[in-house]
## 1
Amino acid sequence: MEVHHHSHHPKKLKEYLQEFLMLFFAVFLGFMSEYYLEYRAERHKEHDYLVSMTKDLKADLDDMHTKDQTMDELLLSGMKITSIIYKPNWEDSDVDSLYLNSINMVTRFITLNFSSGTIDQLRNAGGFRLILNEGIVAKITEYEKGKQLIQVQQEAMMERWSKVHHMQNKLLHLNVFGQPDRTGKITLNRDELNKIISQTGKAFLTSDKNTFYEYSNYVNVSKGYVAFYQIMCKMQQQKAQELIKLIEQELVH
């Protein structure tokens, strides 16, 4: 029996090159496909972060706008208190005003409550690397620094606020206040105050003018801290508006 041996011709260089190129392009295309999918996933995450950040900023703006109006009320109350204290004689309307504006000074909530959900996610998940627009990252950083400065001012303001409250405890009969009305303002029970006046001969815990002047000083100091806090609030509003505008421009692209 004859055995036929098949001859194996060595591959030409061109065939090796073709096989190499086919393998190279297969690996390259696989790599590019994976890279593109990862890129698209990160861009979706970036989009979600920016949308969420915009919502947080708008919530901050709403809170700052409301608190800004309340700060105006508080500052006006402080001015009225000082004006009345330095009057030589007080009428019944002055006494009522002193009571109501004093309680207004310590029951108006003006501290800002910033939304932190998105910024916390960006920090904890390393999400800042996903935001490609360096201008947005810079603005976010600037906004966060503003929040930190406001927090420092807020703590100093609350310390002065507590002193105002302490002085009120030396001057006011706090049991003459009624329940807050629908707008949240506390009412004065004049009948209760008249009863106290008939029993003690005076509308306050003391008639010492120097104590009232001291109270006025604390009120004025507190007003100063509130006024500066309000300025910082307005500056933060501006930063929020600029950041929202920048993000919305980015989301359009």
Note: The mean pLDDT is 87.
## 2
Amino acid sequence: MFSFFKRKPKEPAPVPEQPASAPVAPAPTPATSFSTSPAPAADTPSAVTPSPITPAAITPPVQDVQTEAPQPAEIVAAPAPAPEQKRSWLSRLKAGLAKTSSNLTTLFIGARIDDDLYDELEAALLTSDAGVEATLFLLDALKKKVKEEKLTEAVQVKAALKTLLIDLLTPLQKPLVLGQYQPLVMMIAGVNGAGKTTTIGKLAKHMQTHQQSVVLAAGDTFRAAAREQLTIWGERNDVTVIAQESGDPAAVAFDAVASAKARGTDVVMVDTAGRLPTQLHLMEELKKIKRVIAKGMDGAPQEVLLIIDGNTGQNALAQVKAFDDALQLTGLVITKLDGTAKGGVLAAIAKTRPVPVYFIGIGEQIEDLQPFNAQEFVDALLN
């Protein structure tokens, strides 16, 4: 259960109670049911879509008096999938990574542990977009492990490689913390075609299943279709979208933060125009958006996420480096791992620029976006 922040009453009381001006909040409804009561209008210059916001209650649920302050909750999945859904997710993830999995696993079938095996493994890792640095790191560690543990069977070497990959990727496995800020402001960046706007819609649904109210900011003012697409996701999830037909995307972001503060909204997600990191003037605009958001709320944005197309290979690593240098990324979302994605780029990211991977996506449905789990990912590659 998430902990929410509330305004302190004017006079202290020995037992926590609601402020005199606010009615006592009912016990929270299950994550699958949402409030449809309209939110108060925000005093912002931007146009707001007619879909009402679905605010999560900001009053803590009724519970026994406690002496310790409640802790922020972590978003893990929304909600926990049924066993058959989990099996379906893992099977589709494995199917998406099938090419790399085949290249790696077939090496160990009846193989002798010699230099030829290591050479073939090196080629397979490089082909999977693991990159030179991560590939050499894994090979050196594997040779050392084989020698120290006196491994003599190919299946043992495969298991050793699996362990090394899990150890390498586990630092990227980090949950997205909710309830720590009011509101939590998330700035979403990425190149054109990475699935940025669609991912924002999926994340909004994930937030709602964790009883978080959401407002979306259509900061991609260069592409009219982007605003329309985000509005559709807003209507689908029953959340407000702050948008302007034209103008400064930084102003849209500022208005969205102001609206969220006025409404008591839990999460603000700011969409930005897709751009290549080589477009320096556009990268400067991203920096401006971040500065303007900070003026609207101290410490914001608390999360700066980069959406990456899983099929872009080593170019994904270049994107991470460029956007991280410009914006100081706090997390990544890897999308489209359901096609020709090779998957090895996560090893390159882990070794070269270890920005946490919050989510990975394998399709267009809401449930196709799931928190990154290093064990599951490596299982899909090497089982």
Note: The chain has twelve helices and eleven strands.
## 3
Amino acid sequence: MEKYKPAGFWIRFLANIIDGILIYIIGAIIAILINDERFFSSPGNEANTWYSSPSEDISNLIYVVVFIIVFTASKYKGSPGKLACRIQVLNVEMTQISMLKSIGRFFAYFLSALPLGIGFLMAGWNEEKKGLHDIICSTRVVYRI
């Protein structure tokens, strides 16, 4: 069996930054196509800032469904940001995860975010470089071989 090196906090953080940039570009393209001026306005410029623009809603849905859930459970084993950083999400048996596990992993992100993102930071200080969501779902984020 091949030996995989666990991916730590900072490389995973970089992958999320790349995903964020890509999803912003997708949102901007959608905003241009549907003439959504609110997407490009500064926060606080409008009387009611509680509501997101339609382009933001669409790009957030694309991010969750496609980038986080579908890409992770596909043959790519990770989002475009993870692909760019040469890391992947696997089961503890080092095999591709299922769609159901990918969905569960997404919902476990909410637990990792509470309180103060400590569940994500755990990937920086435990030996196996696992975040709380990885522990809950029995997954690993490792470098590609």
Note: Residues 9-143 form one domain.
